[in-house]
C-alpha cells in the first residue's frame, strides 16, 4: 500500500511538471493570423472553433452577424476587455486577443476578422497547447456573440 502512494505521489509530480512546461511553451507562441485574408483553419484537435470554414463540421461555429451600421470594432474591443482579453494586435479588420486560464496560465488565442462586405464577424478561438479544452473556446465565442448581440441591439434603439 505504501508503494502505491509513493508511485501516485511521483505520478502527480510528473503531471504537474508537464502542465507547467506546457504553460511555459504556450507563452512563446503567437496567434496564427490571417492567411489569404482568412482566419487559419483549426488543427485536428477539439480545442479550436472557427466560423470561417463551414466544411469543417467539428470546429465550425456561426459567425456574428452585423445588422446595422455600428462601430463593431469599438464594441468588440470593449467586450473583449470586459471578458478579460488582452489585445495583442489590431488592424482595421482584424483583432488578435489572448486569454489566460486561471490554472497553470495556459494561453488561448481568439482572432477576429471583420467582413464588412458580407456584414459578419468571423471568429477563431483556440488553445495554443494541449489536445482538449473541455469546450472553453466554444463557450468563449458563444459568450462573445451573446454580449455583442445584446449590446448591438441596445445601440440600435
Classify the secondary structure makeup into a structural class: alpha+beta
**CATH topology title:** TATA-Binding Protein
Q: What is the CATH architecture term?
A: 2-Layer Sandwich
Would you count the extended β strands for me?
A: 8
Shape: elongated
Per CATH, the class reads Alpha Beta
Number of helices: 3
CATH superfamily: TATA-Binding Protein
In round numbers, the mean pLDDT is 88
User: Could you state the oligomeric state of the chains shown?
Assistant: single chain
Main β-sheet, in a few words? 6 strands, antiparallel
| Helix-strand topology string | HEEEEHEEEEH
What is the domain tally? 1
Sheet-strand content, in percent, reads: 15-25%
Low-confidence stretches: none
Gap between N and C termini, in Å?
68 Å
Q: State the helicity in percent bands.
A: 25-40%
Radius of gyration: 18 Å
Describe the structure.
The chain is of the alpha+beta class and 157 residues long. The protein has a single domain, classed as TATA-Binding Protein, CATH 3.30.310. The chain contains 3 helices and 8 strands; from the N terminus they run αββββαββββα. The protein has helices at residues 2-27, 72-82, 136-156, and strands at 34-35, 38-39, 48-50, 64-65, 86-90, 94-100, 107-115, 120-127. The strands form 2 sheets. Strands 3, 4, 5, 6, 7 and 8 form a 6-stranded antiparallel sheet that branches. A two-stranded antiparallel sheet has the order 1-2. A hairpin with a 6-residue loop joins β6 (94-100) and β7. α2 (72-82) crosses α3 (136-156). The protein is elongated. The model has no long low-confidence stretch (mean pLDDT 88).
